[in-house]
Amino acid sequence: MKRKTAGKIAGGVTLALAAMASAVTVATAAEEKKSSYMPVVIKEEFAAVMARLKGEKPAALRRQKDLLEARYDLSNKPAQGVTMSGGKPVQQGVRARLPKGASWEELAQMNPEEIRDKGLFPPAFLPLPHPKHAEGGMVFPEFHIKEIRKQEGRDLTRFDLDFDLPDHFLPEFPAPIFLTTRPDLGDVSKGKLVTIDNFYELFNGVLNPKQIEGVRLLVTPFPQQQFNQTEDRRSERPSRGVTCFDCHANGHSNASTHLVGDIRPQEFRHRIDTPSLRGVNVQRLFGSQRALKTVEDFTEFEQRAAYFDGDPVIATKKGANPLERGSQVHAMAEFQEILDFPPAPKLGIDGKLDPRKATASEMRGQELFFGKAKCASCHTAPYYTDNLMHNLRTERFFKPQMVNGRMANMDGPIKTFTLRGIKDSPPYLHDGRLLTLEDTVEFFNLVLETKLTATEKQDLVAFMRQL
């Protein structure tokens, strides 16, 4: 009997261990299973999460800094006599580093397959990862964080992460505001960052009451994925959230970054370089890939889903702010629609250079833009966009690879961004991988296989600086 009992016990233990092993296998499989949804219930205490992520922060920042320094020349080299609309110097020169032994001239003579097979596609032309791609989320430049803290006492600092690109490659701050309704006023911001503290003072007597209400909503903070009141946040204290103008500062851009909300899994999501809202009245596509058809659609979508990484389930937990389409969205859009491009004194009413004002180099650059360089096949005058989506198929030039948590494989269709006022809006391309206009010319010279000479590239940059 003792033997039988012992056997039963041993068998029971064996079954129990097998059951436990099975449960672990199931749990492991469940953990490995990919999901479109984010975890809603956070099991770890907030203090423990914050301590852990603060500890991981230096390594994460170092990894991104090493990537950027390997890809780019990050030094401060302003172009002589070339400034943005508010006076900030424009950076000059090709900053993308070439693979060892390669030259731009040699690469331009190769076909995409040769470049791919030899591994010669410049790393700076690969998709740029978010500074913390495994999580993503909004990250703001330090100059914006400081000004919002000063004006509102609201803190946009992330305890786990800092912005990655140097300030001299970013748009001027605060950017001028030009209005289609009052071009006679010039910069209506008066050199100030528009916030909840000063919007009424700046716009009362300039805008109508509906537009002023639109501005109020654009500078009102609402909960967002990393900035909210729950334990699932990346600010030390519970946060009121972010505003539309925390990224689109003064209706322009401060180059704040994020990840698109409409791609899964995480490693395939694209980094976003915040585009300018200047000139949205002539644009018909919004979002780099979503192809939303109106600025009203974009405004509503951002707060309903994009603020929360495209996950309405997590948005419910953190405090989604559904805007009322007939009044709030309409008022916000009405103000956005009157944000104008900066003045371009050398352009005529057709959007092209006035020969009496332009230099010989700029005129040659214009001829290239509408001819050999193929720029105008997408960027048509007078606003330098065709309001369409295009797929450059950059994957022809490189093999899929993981870069700091980002699976670099393809970009897909991207909307044609307007080039009016382009010198005010660095960095370039939808994810900010191109730091200067010279980088942009080299990128498209390779991708479009236009075989421009060194002088032609300089002339093309000279022309784009006048747009």
Q: Helix tally?
A: 13
Structural class: mainly alpha
Number of distinct beta strands: 8
Distance between the termini: 95 Å
Average predicted confidence as pLDDT:
92
Identify low-pLDDT runs: 1-30
Beta-strand content bin: 5-15%
Q: Count the domains.
A: 2
What is the helical fraction, as a range of percent?
Answer: 25-40%
Radius of gyration, taken over Cα atoms and rounded to an integer in Å:
25 Å
Order of helices and strands: HHEEHHHHHEEHHHHEEEEHH
Q: Looking across the biggest beta sheet, what order are the strands in?
A: 1-2
Q: What's the story with the biggest beta sheet?
A: 2 strands, antiparallel
Shape: globular
Keywords for this entry:
8 strands; two-stranded antiparallel sheet; 467 residues; mainly alpha; Cytochrome Bc1 Complex, Chain D, domain 2; disordered N terminus
Characterization of this structure:
By secondary structure, the protein is mostly helical. It folds into 2 domains: 42-69 and 135-343, no CATH class; 72-126 and 345-467, Cytochrome Bc1 Complex, Chain D, domain 2 (Orthogonal Bundle), CATH 1.10.760. It is built from 13 helices and 8 strands. Strand 6 (401-403) and strand 7 (406-408) form a beta hairpin. Helix 8 (295-304) crosses helix 10, helix 11 (360-369) packs across helix 13 and helix 12 (437-447) packs across helix 13. The longest helix is centred in the N-terminal third of the chain and has 31 residues, at 2-32. Mean pLDDT is 92; it is low at 1-30.
